[in-house]
Amino acid sequence: MNLCDYNTVKRILAKHGFTFSKALGQNFLINPQVCPAMAESLCADKSTGVIEVGAGIGVLTKELCSVAGKVVCIELDKRLLPVLDETLNDCRNLEIVNDDIMKVDLHRLIADKFDNCSSVKVCANLPYYITSPVIMTLLESKLPIDEIVVMVQKEAGERLCAQVGSRLSGAVTVAVNYYAESEILFDVNRDSFMPSPKVDSIVIRLKIRKEPLFALTNEKRFFSVVRCAFSQRRKTALNSISNTMGIGKDKLTQIFNANGIDLNARAEKLTMENFKAISENI
């Protein structure tokens, strides 16, 4: 069964009365080169466990099952379950969990499903509308996983993997850099999907750090400073933090000056060390 053949996919979906949901951001991969490349990038073996977020029709899932010892796919859309029963019926190392990735107890799932695995990785073609929430949930939960390989909207992927202190950086860039080392793997043209989205995609890798980038007195305050700095991107970081956190400009000015931070710099110009200095001295 060729799950990358347009007519085959169309026939299977019609057989099960499936229609695409715009609300769930459903675009199924039909490019035969993309999923094998994503699976291969994991460098998985039979001792590796993989969590997939959303199976679609199962084209990536099948490739993951061929390289890993155990694959658990968390699929929200129950309408896809009978479709996947047909397309993945020969995958003996697969378990599909009909649930919402944002609500699943991932620590429990990993403990229960991958107890015999030496490492656990995440691989997914993420719907555009939920890219950042899913990635931040995976990172902030501090799960026992090694890496995350995901396909996302190209613009979002470039922001996630941008260098902190560059024009493309944002609050999510800082968060990713704190928890992981990021890398862009390859581009994916919009014509690789059914139906075709209006934008191109990109596959990225987030290699989870064993320990966060640096120790913080108050992690919550650090990320609050970051979010507030980027909340008013056209203003200086000093003014944006002062306005949104309710901290006097005089005090912030002292902190900026003491740590050699440009008073006129916008948030995208600040480094990780700058954000740490501001957070630690408030």
As a whole number of angstroms, the C-alpha radius of gyration is 21 Å
Proportion of residues in β-strands: 15-25%
Helix content class? 25-40%
Summarize the helix and strand pattern as letters.
Answer: HEHEHEHEHEHEHHEEEHHHH
- Structural class of the secondary structure composition? alpha/beta
Please report the total strand number as a whole number.
9
Summarize the main sheet: 7 strands, mixed
**Multimeric status of the protein:** single chain
The end-to-end span amounts to 60 Å
**Uncertain residue segments:** none
Q: Can you give the mean pLDDT?
A: 95
What is the tally of helical segments? 12
Instruction: Label the overall shape.
Output: elongated
Description:
- The protein has 12 helices and 9 strands.
- The model has no long low-confidence stretch (mean pLDDT 95).
- With 282 residues, the chain is of the alpha/beta class.
- The radius of gyration is 21 Å and the shape is elongated.
- Helix content is 39%, strand content 18%.
- The N and C termini lie far apart (60 Å).
- The strands form 2 sheets. The chain has a 7-stranded mixed sheet with strand order 4-3-2-5-6-9-7, sandwiched between helices. A two-stranded antiparallel ribbon has the order 1-8.
List keywords for this structure.
alpha/beta, two-stranded antiparallel ribbon, 282 residues, 12 helices, seven-stranded mixed β-sheet, elongated
Summarize the structure.
The chain is α/β, with parallel strands linked by helices and about 280 residues long. Helix content is about 40%, strand content about 20%.
